[in-house]
Amino acid sequence: NMEQKLNEEVLQKWDAIFEKTQEKATRISDGEDPKGYFLEIKIKQGSDIYSIGNRSLGFRWFFSFLIFTAFRKSRSVDKGETLFLLDEPASNLHYRSQQKLLDSLKNTFSDCKLIYSTHSPHLINPKWLAGTYIVKNKAIDYDNPEEGKTDISIDSYKNFAAQYPDQEYHFKPILDALDYVPSKLELVPSLIFTEGKNDYYTFRYIAKVIFNSEYKLNFYPGAGANSYEYIFRLYIGWNRKFIALFDSDETGEKEKNRYIESIGCDLENKIFTLMDINSEWKNSTTENLFPEKERIRIIQTCYEDHKTYKKKEFNLAIEHLYISETKFDLSKETINKFRSIFEFLKDKLND
Predict the structure, then answer these.
(1) pLDDT > 90 fraction of the chain, expressed in percent and rounded
(2) Under a CB-based contact definition with an 8 Å cutoff, are residues 1 and 17 in contact?
(3) How many Å apart are CA 241 and CA 253, to the nearest integer?
């Protein structure tokens, strides 16, 4: 029974995360030494049997990680909720494996709480930034780190990012905090630049949850329509595909024309407003794509007592629906609007 349970809880999850194809199974034997009785766990792969200690460092970490989480939270003698505190999880795993492990964390810790520290950008889920904190030791002298001085500061990511209003996109402060530098081998994806994080979460939610990832579009959470001067020039210099979608209000139209004038004709077929997709959407914002009654119903998924539309609460509700991957029953009118937007974006990226 123990072997079967380990196969389900550990080896099957290992194969699912790391896409291993060779069948493996646990083998448990008992024995006795001068200290007493013991159980020994080994891994059977093909015709060979290995001790856990003979496997890779990553496998040993992952095996131990699931043993101490999946089974620890199931102890019948422990009442109440379990809180796990993890220091630098998955630091022994490859970057790709870290990303896949991150995807699995929400299932592994579905019925308990998790707090973990990390320096790895691959272990940061954008959906969880609302619950993320930046921790710094401001007293460290990196020329003399052995002095061991401490002056610890901790700040929520929301407050931390607000200290950098001129950043060109919403996630950049956290990458700066991690001293992140992209590899020279990294592929740069085709992007769709949105005005800000609220548009980003709205488009991501519709694309992933409502349309079930039918559209393979990469959205970029900007910091306002006026914050793209450097990014546009960079992508043009890299010769990478991109387009930008702004609101068709006064600010969106003004910034679209300003970029085309300041950077040149390379942007004429790359920057669009909602009115370029549908002439009836003049002076429209992303929020206006939803009928007012529907906006109020979306707000009520988080704030049950709200009877009127408020932009802040609407955007927070959309973000929550995206994080929880909750499918909201949108009207056919709204779905058709977003389908026309995604078809337009897809066609423009393929031009």
Answers:
(1) 34
(2) no
(3) 22
Tokens of 80: 């109440």
Which tokens belong to 123? 């272990």
Mean per-residue pLDDT over the chain, rounded:
83
> Is 147 within 8 Å of 141 (Cβ atoms)?
yes
pLDDT of res. 161: 72
Q: Strand, helix or coil at 67?
A: helix
- Digit-coded pLDDT (tens) for 122-131: 888 888 888 8
DSSP SS3 for 243: strand
> What dihedral angle (degrees, nearest 10) is formed by the CA atoms of 52, 54, 56, 62?
10
Number of H helices, E strands in the chain: 13, 11
Q: Are residues 204 and 152 in contact, defined by beta-carbon separation less than 8 angstroms? A: no
Contacts 24+ apart (CB under 8 A), 284-287: 284/247, 284/248, 284/249, 285/247, 285/248, 285/249, 286/195, 286/198, 286/199, 286/202, 286/203, 286/247, 287/198, 287/202, 287/311, 287/314, 287/315
In whole angstroms, give the CA distance from residue 81 to residue 319: 26
The residue among 131, 136, 104 whose CA lies nearest residue 119 is 136
The closest of 219, 194, 16 to 104, measured between CA atoms, is 16
- Is the Cα dihedral 136, 141, 144, 146 positive or negative? negative
Strand order in the sheet with 36-45: 24-33, 36-45, 48-51
Give the three-state DSSP class for 275: helix
> Looking at residue 267, what is its pLDDT?
87
